[in-house]
Amino acid sequence: MTIFLVNIAQILLMVLAAPMAAGIVKKMKARLQNRQGAGIFQPYRDLSKLFGKEMVLADHASWIFRAAPYIVFTSTVLAASVVPVIVVDSPFSWTADVIALAGFLAIGTFFTALAGMDIGTVFGGMGASREMTFSALAEPALLMSIFVLSVTAQSTNLSVMIHHILDAGILLKPSIAFALIAMLMVSIVENGRIPVDNPGTHLEVTMIHEAMLLEYSGRHLALIEWATQIKLVLFATLIFDLFFPWGISTAVATIALLTALALWIFKLILFFVLLVIIETGLAKMRLFEVPQFLSTAFFLALLGMFMHYILEVGAQ
Amino acid sequence: MSQILLQQIITMGAALMLLISFALLAQKRMLSLLHWFALQGIVLAAVTALVAYTSDNTELYVSAAITLVLKGMLLPWVLWKIIRQMHVHREVEPLVNIPVTMLIAAALVVFSYQVTLPIEHLSHLITRNTIAVAMANVLLGMLMMITRKKAITQVIGFLAIENSLFFAGVGATYGMPLVAELGVAFDVLIASVVFGLFFYQIRDTFESLDLNKMENK
Known about the structure:
Helix content of chain B: over 70%
Order of helices and strands of chain A: HHHHHHHHHH
Strand content of chain B: under 5%
Mean pLDDT of chain B: 86
Radius of gyration of chain B: 18 Å
Shape of chain B: globular
Helix content of chain A: 55-70%
Distance between the termini of chain B: 61 Å
Shape of chain A: globular
Number of strands of chain A: 0
Structural class of chain A: mainly alpha
Structural class of chain B: mainly alpha
Largest interface: A-B, 21 and 28 residues
Oligomer: heterodimer
Strand content of chain A: under 5%
Largest sheet of chain A: none
């Protein structure tokens, strides 16, 4: 029974802490660029303001446009519920594996794109076509890099994979290093961060993700923004689970859970520091270079897979 | 150092060799192609030195040193000089577009793994798993020679094959005898000089290094 409570607590933690995480990223980025920046609780204020605001709907908006924010938010929360944050073997993680997880995220992307096209504005359609082009390439790369770990652990279930890595100890494995790099590249694309897309842009022509959301306002916009923030924390947690699971609690015990929580926050902050350095240091790449970036990620993951079979399983 | 750790580092080196072979195929600019080629020489030298340490083989240290100087520094430098002097166009011109080349390359890796598996079962060295990677590298070098238009990129492909053969030698048998090693190194050096002369001849006669023009003349 307690494990259910812990599981629900960890989902709530991820959902409720996500805006703060976004605030921390923004604050760190501002400090690195010698700006003061808004406080780390600003995203909460933004969200509560948006929730209270009146919505403006276009006359042509169909039910898809109105349903999309709820579908996007729900699918993201469902995806988040599958990922172990502080405890392995959580009941929800047994209900779906990583393929289902990628599926949840794909549903979100699909409906965002549909909503972008639904209104019939130029920018919405443009954003949708770009997003679809990239996610069609990002998904194989994401799955391939997860599969590298799946074949090692011989399971696609996250809890089993985490147990396998915890048992194996720290190993210098080229396959996992390649998969990690591929995964980082994909998560930059999936979250629309800087070398690929700029989440803070106001220039419609350069937008990818934001272009689809231009017509949204009020409650709908708040839900989609919140989902985007959850997605960032979700990807970070997924990377920790797959590549650095050390510290995650294997049993429901208060001290282990608290340690796991502290370590999760610590890893999250390290991840954000890396993200902020990348975002500040790199310029946005040309749109037509993104498919190349993604195919590099795919081939790195594929090489990781080869490495696993050739060098690590090999002729033993 | 423990045997397992050494094996893991050598495995990492082999993985890097394969990564570099893929990177060589993916490059669009001549200069970055040369950088990756030089890196291949350096990684090869590092792996050779590690294998020399593991097997206590003094001759292999000499091979590693020769590899570092010749393939990591001298040959890339000579090629860079040639590119500079002959004003070769900076872009690499592939015959088949790059993503397709990469897919072919991936298929070649699977093929070479399948082919070398029986050989690996015969070996007991800790480097035996690298044989398939070396074989794949040879095939990728050949792929590069086939799918590039210019003489210089084809020569880089040839030299990459030579690197991979050396790597195969190190992985399969802890290196060839030093005499053979020295002979091959000298051959490569002479070959690069001959290639250089050929480049000048080709350009003087056909006013381009594009080999397709030779056929159309």
